[in-house]
Amino acid sequence: MKTHAPAESESTAIVQSLALHGGADDATPEVELAELARARAFAEPLLNGHTLDTGEEAFTHAEGVAAILRTMGAAPSMQAAAYLVYAGDFLNRPDEVVAKAFGASYAGLVINTRRLFAIGRAAREATVLHERQAEQTERVRKMLLAFSRDLRVVLLRLASRLQTLRWFAAGKRECPAPLAREALQVFAPLANRLGIWQIKWELEDLSFRFLQPEDYKRVASLLDGKRIEREREVEAARRRLAVALAGQGLQAEVRGRSKHLYSIWKKMQAKGLDFDRVLDVRALRVIVATLPDCYAALSRVHELYRALPGEFDDYIARPKSNGYQSLHTVVQDGDGRAIEVQIRTREMHEHAEHGVAAHWAYKEAGARGAGGVSAEGEFEARVAEARKKVL
Questions:
Q1: Would you say the pTM of this structure is higher than 0.85?
Q2: Structural domains in the chain?
Q3: Tens digit of pLDDT for each residue in 219-267?
Q4: 3-state DSSP call for residue 57?
Q5: What is the DSSP string of 161-188?
Q6: Distance, CA of 197 to CA of 218 (rounded, Å)
Q7: Three-state helix/strand/coil letters over 97-145
Q8: Taking a C-beta distance cutoff of 8 angstroms, is the pair 315, 324 a contact?
Q9: Rounded to whole angstroms, how far apart are CA atoms 366 and 383?
Q10: 366 CB-near residues (< 8 Å, 6+ apart)
């Protein structure tokens, strides 16, 4: 039995867990929950006392991956796979042991994940010497989808890398630059293409923190500097809009929306803006029941506030390539402060937060090549093909 997990064993965990469904396709929720508990109990004694190459305890990592998958709406069978894939690193004959204890599907998952990880690592090492960084990262993106028979493999891979970054951040440890850079250049754009914004934003912010600590601290300080005043302004706008929508008979949930440091920094860099000129630092999100309600709410917003010219986007009529739908508008309050307002239905919101993990059933829509990542048409087509497999 190994005393130390292979390099980037988390990568291994990812790919395989999603390549197969995990348990039996006809398993009931009760059976899946029991299977999850059994997988955890099986893995814990194998993983305890062992660490990954990052220094994180193996069982802690598996627990974190399973928790992230749970927040993404993944089935218990997927969460169980996170434990079994890591347990496979500490078994002499993982295929035989896992097959006997959990069935052929999980055994295949463990073996294929490790095989896929080896292929991906070899590809990355080979391209470092011969390709520019952009070409290398694009090759890794393609590899992640090309070798996965099921899109959920990629979701598990994303969850694993996020858990690794969280571990470094929580312990105030120094994260290796190549690991953070791969998270920013490979996994965050991939999460964006799949519409998993919660994962995308967190990967970006954590990578930004490790790769450009001074810029990260500066933006964080700017955000925190007038935080109380800004939160008071947003709350006043939220209450006013909620009352106005209710008065129109619309059932709407109006929330203040948190901003992400990396997205603010990118806007400042791309447009040469000072912090005070980033228009969506103050932001509201409106969630309504139906599609017609989206446009009714938009009309009411524009009655309450002055809309800024050129700052309206209808992603409902023209969804982004990753399926994202929402109305975006930027308005000015009575004191001239800009407020971004996003309006969407509950279903659109679930997709915006968790992407394909929300329902496993969204159509490919919109123009190709969005998300700020250069890619060839074949890669975009592969994403579309992968999505169809979970419809």
A1: no
A2: 9-211 (1.10.3210.10), 216-349 (3.30.460.10)
A3: 888 777 666 777 788 888 999 999 999 999 999 999 887 678 888 888 7
A4: strand
A5: HHHHHHHHHHTTPPPPHHHHHHIIIIIH
A6: 24
A7: HHHHHHCHHHHHHHHHHHHHHHHHHHHHHHHHCCCCHHHHHHHHHHHHH
A8: yes
A9: 13
A10: 318, 319, 320, 321, 322, 323
